[in-house]
C-alpha cells in the first residue's frame, strides 16, 4: 500500500459563542464526534477535560489525524483545530458542522495544505 503525505489543516477561532455551550463538555464531546463522523473520519478515541471554574478541552483522535477544541467560556471564545491526512476525509465538513452548532458571532479561519513535497519554504 502506498501512503500520501498530503493533508488539510484548518484552524478556526470563534468569538461570541454562548457561555453555556462552551462550558458543556458533554455537548462539545458529542459535537466533535459528530463533526468527525460527518467528515467521514474514523474515530479512534476521545479525550476530554472539564476545567474549573469553566472551560473545556476535547481531543478526537481519528485514523486520519485529529480534531480539537479549547474553550474559554468567560471570553465566549474557542480555538478549534482539524487536521486530516489524505483525501478521503474533508476537514471543512467537520468545521462547517461545528460552526453550525456553536453559532459564533465572529470567526477567523486559516486553511493549510500540508505534506506536498513541491512546496518550497523560504526563510
Automatic annotation (TrEMBL):
<feature type="active site" description="Schiff-base intermediate with substrate; via pyruvic acid">
    <location>
        <position position="65"/>
    </location>
</feature>
<comment type="subunit">
    <text>Heterotetramer of two alpha and two beta chains arranged as a dimer of alpha/beta heterodimers.</text>
</comment>
<dbReference type="GO" id="GO:0004014">
    <property type="term" value="F:adenosylmethionine decarboxylase activity"/>
</dbReference>
<feature type="active site" description="Proton donor; for catalytic activity">
    <location>
        <position position="85"/>
    </location>
</feature>
<feature type="modified residue" description="Pyruvic acid (Ser); by autocatalysis">
    <location>
        <position position="65"/>
    </location>
</feature>
<keyword id="KW-0949">S-adenosyl-L-methionine</keyword>
<dbReference type="GO" id="GO:0008295">
    <property type="term" value="P:spermidine biosynthetic process"/>
</dbReference>
<keyword id="KW-0620">Polyamine biosynthesis</keyword>
<keyword id="KW-0210">Decarboxylase</keyword>
<feature type="site" description="Cleavage (non-hydrolytic); by autolysis">
    <location>
        <begin position="64"/>
        <end position="65"/>
    </location>
</feature>
<keyword id="KW-0068">Autocatalytic cleavage</keyword>
<dbReference type="GO" id="GO:0005829">
    <property type="term" value="C:cytosol"/>
</dbReference>
<feature type="active site" description="Proton acceptor; for processing activity">
    <location>
        <position position="70"/>
    </location>
</feature>
<comment type="function">
    <text>Catalyzes the decarboxylation of S-adenosylmethionine to S-adenosylmethioninamine (dcAdoMet), the propylamine donor required for the synthesis of the polyamines spermine and spermidine from the diamine putrescine.</text>
</comment>
<dbReference type="InterPro" id="IPR017716">
    <property type="entry name" value="S-AdoMet_deCOase_pro-enz"/>
</dbReference>
<keyword id="KW-0670">Pyruvate</keyword>
<keyword id="KW-0745">Spermidine biosynthesis</keyword>
<dbReference type="InterPro" id="IPR003826">
    <property type="entry name" value="AdoMetDC_fam_prok"/>
</dbReference>
<dbReference type="Pfam" id="PF02675">
    <property type="entry name" value="AdoMet_dc"/>
</dbReference>
<keyword id="KW-0704">Schiff base</keyword>
<protein>
    <recommendedName>
        <fullName>S-adenosylmethionine decarboxylase proenzyme</fullName>
        <ecNumber>4.1.1.50</ecNumber>
    </recommendedName>
</protein>
<dbReference type="InterPro" id="IPR016067">
    <property type="entry name" value="S-AdoMet_deCO2ase_core"/>
</dbReference>
<keyword id="KW-0456">Lyase</keyword>
<comment type="pathway">
    <text>Amine and polyamine biosynthesis; S-adenosylmethioninamine biosynthesis; S-adenosylmethioninamine from S-adenosyl-L-methionine: step 1/1.</text>
</comment>
<keyword id="KW-0865">Zymogen</keyword>
<comment type="similarity">
    <text>Belongs to the prokaryotic AdoMetDC family. Type 1 subfamily.</text>
</comment>
Amino acid at each position: 500500500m502506498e501512503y500520501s503525505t498530503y493533508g488539510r489543516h484548518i484552524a478556526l477561532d470563534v468569538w461570541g459563542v454562548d457561555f453555556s455551550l462552551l462550558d458543556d463538555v458533554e455537548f462539545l464531546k458529542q459535537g466533535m464526534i459528530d463533526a468527525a463522523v460527518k467528515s467521514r473520519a474514523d474515530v479512534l478515541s476521545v479525550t476530554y477535560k472539564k476545567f474549573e471554574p469553566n472551560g473545556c478541552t476535547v481531543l478526537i483522535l481519528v485514523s486520519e489525524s485529529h480534531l480539537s477544541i479549547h474553550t474559554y467560556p468567560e471570553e465566549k471564545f474557542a480555538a478549534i483545530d482539524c487536521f486530516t491526512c489524505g483525501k478521503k476525509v474533508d476537514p471543512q465538513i467537520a468545521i462547517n458542522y461545528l460552526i453550525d452548532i456553536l453559532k459564533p458571532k465572529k470567526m477567523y479561519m486559516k486553511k493549510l495544505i500540508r505534506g506536498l513535497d513541491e512546496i518550497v519554504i523560504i526563510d
